[in-house]
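Anyone up for a design puzzle?
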């Protein structure tokens, strides 16, 4: 019987196939898509082994797809793949071209046949010549794009595509099967005329190349910084600061400084703080200039970059005397040899520029080391500014207004050149009296108003300079507590779900093809690729595609997040259409298409991803139901590549162990069930049995939860008086808030004083839906166990339950429960990161109900992002302080707090391990001068 090969080919009857890996002979069919050596049935085993070794080397270099190209292996043997392989021969030939090159192209057979495999009927002589030139120059992206576009472009247009040349280090088509790209290109561009198809394709090429060039430039900029000096430089800067403060105190005392004089010294703005802040502003301006110079040189080269910042260098360099420079240069034993202040590097560079010497190699040798440490200086000064202004100077020591000579000089000469304009700087000035108008507010009232150093805009300029040196457009204002706290290395912006991405051409085209598959209408004559994408995204069909929820049987859902047996990958199910869109954006496939969504919504299929240890998706798969369980209907790697065979087999083995889907008894209507003659009870009906009682219980629980709703309304920004009823609609806004938005809302509410931390914690302990469920007859829970899933912050797994919670009272009760859980998690995040506002809230209003679960959570967190102090000895059960407590006392506050701690992410096993190793840990920033005993005592006297 003839061997069945890939791409619909049947081998001649006198030929046999041998598996590359094992050498096993295949006489008909075998493992789907396996690489084989094809030869005469009577071939010498030794020659078969030689051919197998040759093909194994090629597969190792170019992937298993290369075997389908029919490569000449000598002695009459050729490579092949068995039936069941994905893609087409074009994929195999292109993969072989990358490995064989022009010199080895003869192994693919006749030149004409190879060109036809790549370009079909458009394989003219000019196309062949342009293709050979692209192969010789290893311009694989142009070759693959032309091959994929051969179905929609003419020969002359293909020659233009084949002549495309990306810059060094740029690969517009880094991965993906050309056959998949061809199908997506056909779906995206087929409705346009051929000239417009080419215009859109060339525009996409330019955009992808520009995007990759931007990413590459950002990587080079980040790599140019030396942050290994950050910690030793910080020590050097602090040591210099301490020496300077001692000199100022000595000068104020006007005599030899002894211990008694130091104790008696009372710093004031005029005697000390003014000088410290002025020096800080000088350093901030110097660091800002160095960072701007770093970015300018990176973007424009040495000569042009220096010219961009030359005037700013001169202004800052002119602020300092020679004695100040020498003092900052003076080496200190056991500390890093770098200057203590960035002003030294600014002065050195400016001195060289004033000599009017050429910006040659010698100047570059002076410049580069100073640019490598510019970011370290910027981060050091930025942290020092926050520490001094927030924690160093008491609020009452600030004057009603204050300015800086250095800042005035800078603004007069340079002006405002940062990312934020003065009219947009809406930060409260740092002066004695709070709630003063910001610079933006003053300018709105009086355009002649001027900036002062107390507006802290110089801190924003420094933060922006740091962010730009890290490859961002500007810093992001995270929150404001006394001073502005900026994110100087924010996460890169991510596109909205289903938005076609220009990371690569296959990814961009897969995105547009999927939008069209979802029902979006192709625009008539888009001028460029961006306009094409914008008009596709504006379609109502796309918005509807993001609203679906999928039903997954509980017997399968228990595997969500678990490791796939025999692999290092974990399983993740898609329970919403939004999750599918996120997968599709990365994988470049059509898993978010309507056919998959429809089957998943009806419960006929389950869509999943496997993620590796780095949370990167390795494969997508679709499971289909059958009478005896589930089977793998489709499985593919990124860009629909064949998955790793071992991974495929592991998924198939796992799927075969899943139980068959069970009938949802909640959907059975009792009135339609015929009672058997034997008198068996009819199936229970959730809506008839539980709904009335649950509605009544939820209404009662909501009445008792009005105080909690008022607190959540205040958190959402509502202005309520104590007697007003809260509008349940505020829950919708809170539920739709991202984690970062909830963090910011909590910080803002605590900072404003409109709600205290104990009140917010107490409000989030009220769970009306959980209370209502607990008040139901236990027999109802026994018959309808899915009721318990209503309080879980996940999509509801049953259509009947989804219908049930649409009742107004139940919807409000569930919204209150879910928002309460999310707010508590937000508070736990603020605790783990020692947010300054949260630290102040804990210190001002500590209570056992707040402290205990948070401390349990922090102790059980191995990588907590804040400094902690052990308040017990390792393994100790007794916790010091008055009143005395024990971690194991079942009626004590610590044991009683474990349910709340687990909800925050605490793990009892991790807690036990860390307790045994180093004791119970509390964030150091929470503790007052008297330490833990004072905080614990205060917690028992705090009024909510």
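Challenge accepted. My sequence:
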């Amino acid at each position: 019987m003839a061997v069945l090969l890939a791409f619909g080919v049947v081998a001649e009857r006198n030929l046999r196939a041998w598996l590359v890996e094992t050498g096993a002979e295949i006489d008909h069919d075998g493992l789907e898509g396996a690489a084989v050596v094809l030869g005469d049935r009577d071939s010498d085993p030794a020659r078969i082994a030689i051919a197998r070794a040759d093909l194994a080397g090629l597969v190792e270099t170019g992937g298993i797809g290369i075997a389908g190209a029919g490569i000449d292996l000598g002695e009459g043997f050729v490579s092949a793949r068995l039936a069941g392989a994905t893609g087409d021969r074009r994929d195999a030939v292109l993969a072989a071209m990358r490995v064989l090159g022009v010199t080895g192209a003869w192994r693919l057979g006749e030149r004409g046949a190879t060109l036809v495999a790549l370009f079909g009927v458009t394989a003219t002589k000019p196309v062949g010549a342009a293709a050979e030139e692209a192969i010789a120059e290893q311009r694989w992206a142009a070759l693959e794009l032309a091959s994929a576009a051969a179905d929609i472009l003419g020969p002359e247009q293909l020659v233009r595509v084949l002549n495309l040349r990306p810059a060094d280090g740029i690969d517009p088509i880094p991965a993906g099967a050309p056959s998949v790209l061809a199908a997506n290109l056909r779906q995206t561009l087929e409705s346009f005329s051929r000239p417009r198809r080419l215009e859109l394709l060339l525009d996409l090429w330019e955009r992808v190349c520009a995007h990759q060039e931007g990413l590459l430039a950002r990587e080079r900029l980040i790599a140019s910084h030396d942050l290994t000096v950050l910690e030793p430089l910080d020590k050097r800067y602090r040591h210099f600061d301490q020496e300077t403060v001692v000199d100022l105190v000595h000068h104020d005392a006007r005599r030899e400084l002894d211990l008694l004089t130091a104790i008696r010294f009372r710093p004031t703005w005029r005697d000390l703080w003014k000088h410290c802040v002025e020096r800080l502003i000088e350093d901030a301006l110097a660091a800002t200039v160095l960072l701007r110079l770093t970015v300018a040189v990176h973007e424009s080269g040495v000569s042009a970059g220096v010219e961009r910042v030359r005037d700013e260098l001169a202004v800052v360099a002119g602020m300092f005397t020679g004695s100040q420079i020498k003092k900052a240069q003076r080496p200190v034993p056991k500390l890093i040899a770098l200057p203590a202040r960035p002003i030294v590097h600014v002065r050195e560079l400016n001195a060289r520029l004033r000599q009017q010497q050429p910006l040659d190699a010698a100047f570059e040798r002076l410049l580069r080391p100073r640019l490598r440490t510019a970011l370290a200086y910027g981060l050091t000064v930025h942290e020092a500014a926050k520490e001094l202004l927030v924690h160093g100077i008491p609020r009452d020591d600030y004057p009603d207004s204050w300015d800086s000579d250095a800042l005035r000089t800078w603004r007069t000469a340079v002006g405002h050149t940062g990312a934020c304009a003065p009219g947009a700087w809406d930060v409260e000035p740092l002066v004695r009296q709070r709630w003063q108008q910001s610079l933006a507010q003053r300018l709105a009232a009086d355009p002649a108003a001027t900036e002062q150093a107390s507006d802290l805009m110089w801190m924003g300029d420094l933060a922006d300079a740091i962010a730009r040196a890290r490859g961002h457009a500007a810093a992001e204002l995270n929150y404001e507590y006394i001073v502005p706290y900026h994110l100087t290395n924010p996460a890169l912006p991510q596109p909205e779900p289903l938005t076609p991405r220009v990371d690569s051409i296959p990814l961009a085209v897969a995105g547009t093809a999927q939008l069209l598959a979802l029902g979006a209408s192709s625009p008539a004559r888009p001028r460029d690729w961006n306009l094409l994408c914008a008009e596709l995204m504006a379609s109502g069909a796309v918005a509807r595609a993001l609203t679906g929820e999928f039903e997954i049987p509980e017997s399968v859902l228990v595997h969500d997040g678990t490791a796939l047996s025999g692999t290092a990958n974990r399983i993740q199910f898609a329970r919403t259409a939004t999750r599918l869109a996120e997968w599709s954006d990365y994988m470049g496939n059509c898993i978010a298409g309507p056919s998959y969504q429809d089957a998943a919504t009806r419960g006929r299929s389950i869509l999943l991803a496997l993620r590796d240890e780095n949370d990167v998706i390795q494969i997508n798969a679709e499971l289909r139901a059958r009478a005896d369980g589930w089977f793998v209907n489709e499985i593919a790697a990124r860009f629909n590549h064949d998955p790793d065979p071992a991974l495929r087999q592991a998924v198939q083995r796992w799927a075969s162990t899943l139980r068959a889907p069970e009938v949802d008894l909640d959907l059975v209507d009792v009135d339609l069930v015929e009672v058997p003659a034997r008198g068996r009870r009819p199936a229970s009906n959730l809506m008839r049995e539980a709904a009335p009682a649950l509605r009544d219980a939820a209404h009662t629980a909501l009445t008792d939860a009005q105080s909690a709703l008022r607190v959540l309304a205040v958190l959402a920004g509502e202005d309520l008086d104590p007697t007003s009823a809260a509008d349940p609609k505020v829950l919708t806004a809170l539920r739709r808030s991202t984690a970062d938005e909830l963090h910011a809302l909590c910080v803002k509410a605590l900072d404003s004083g409109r709600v205290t931390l104990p009140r917010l914690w107490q409000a989030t302990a009220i769970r009306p839906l959980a209370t209502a469920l607990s008040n139901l007859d236990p027999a109802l829970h026994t018959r309808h166990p899915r009721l318990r899933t209503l309080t879980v912050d996940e999509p509801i797994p049953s259509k009947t339950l989804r219908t049930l919670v649409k009742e107004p009272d139940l919807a409000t009760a569930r919204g209150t429960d879910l928002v309460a859980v999310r707010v508590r998690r937000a508070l736990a995040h603020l605790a783990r990161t020692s947010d300054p506002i949260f630290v102040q809230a804990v210190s001002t209003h500590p209570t056992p109900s707040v402290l205990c679960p948070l401390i349990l959570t922090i102790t059980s967190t191995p990588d907590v992002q804040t400094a902690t102090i052990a308040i017990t000895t390792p393994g100790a059960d007794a916790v010091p302080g008055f009143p005395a407590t024990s971690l194991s006392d079942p009626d004590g506050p610590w044991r009683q707090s474990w349910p709340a701690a687990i909800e925050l992410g605490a793990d009892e096993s991790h807690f036990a391990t860390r307790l045994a190793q180093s004791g119970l840990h509390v964030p150091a920033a929470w503790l007052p001068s008297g330490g833990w005993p004072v905080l614990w005592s205060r917690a028992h006297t705090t009024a909510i």
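A detail worth pointing out: The first strand starts at residue 15 and ends at 19.
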